[in-house]
Specification:
Among the domains are: 3-71 and 99-185; 187-228, no CATH class. The chain is built from five helices and 16 strands. It has helices at 31-45, 126-136, 167-176, 198-206, 303-309; strands at residues 3-18, 55-68, 70-71, 80-81, 89-90, 97-98, 107-119, 146-148, 158-163, 181-185, 209-214, 220-226, 233-243, 263-273, 286-291, 296-301. It has a six-stranded antiparallel barrel with strand order 2-10-14-13-16-15. A two-stranded antiparallel sheet has the order 3-4. Strand 15 and strand 16 (296-301) form a beta hairpin.
Amino acid sequence: MMIKQYLMIPHLQIQNANAASSPYTVGFPAMTAWLGMTHALQRRIRQRDELQEVGLPRVAVICHAFDLQVFNEKGNFYGSLIGTANPLKKSRKTGEFERPSFVEEARCHLEISLLVELAGMKGSFKESFEETVRRELPRLKAAGGDIVLRHGEQQDWQVVSVDDDDERDVRRVKARLMPGYAIIERQDLLQHESGKDALDSLLNAMQVQYTANRDAEGAFLGWQRSKVAADGWLVPIAVGFRDLSGNLQVKEQRSYEYEHHFVEPLVTVGEFVMPYRCEAIQEMMWEYEYNEAEGLYLCRNMGKQDLRGEE
């Protein structure tokens, strides 16, 4: 019997979250944002003396609704991002008030559930922990967006104990996350071919191909649809950064207390799956991984392979 404790945060409403998960993708917020919010919550929780040993090592993100702020003109396949109306400012040249220039930002409204694994949690501190979460979580940013609370919603933020070997116990937790889609990593779908870079491999995994079917005489019969994962809902997802420079000291950097690195984002293939399709809860979990030799700062999905060997 293996009992684990999780913090269940169901159906959290978020407005104006950052949908630009990398310099070249717009869509579901990056996994670095969700793990970053979880880490920020852990730091606030540990400010209480009795909760200093509590850790939040892993988190699962389940999406229930997603509304990308775009405008689609009638008859146009492509959408345009809806920008924010910045306040007027006084021009130094003319003295009149003008609309300032702005950087176009991709925003989205979404509804998610979070399932956060707990470590070092003692049963006697459960009420203190839940009280701290209900007070501190609404003060945080979720992927750069604002958490919108409904009356009485925070009472549903509770610690649940799950026996991973009890199928009924696991099924009960999954049911609370439905209907929704958990984001998991599908790096196995990236097929690197000679002469093609990583971006080509990513695009090949995402594309949907249509082939014309013809009879022996060449007459058109219809279209054949095919893709890498026939039944999968695949999306590009940012999962971390690669170090390009090593530790540097530059003028006017944000903080001299911490190391300064130039990095590039890492994007891979993610898949939205309903929680009931995951055999175990850990298949939905994401955690940090740091590879110093390769210079990789990653958010890694545990997946099925880790469950077999507990690597």
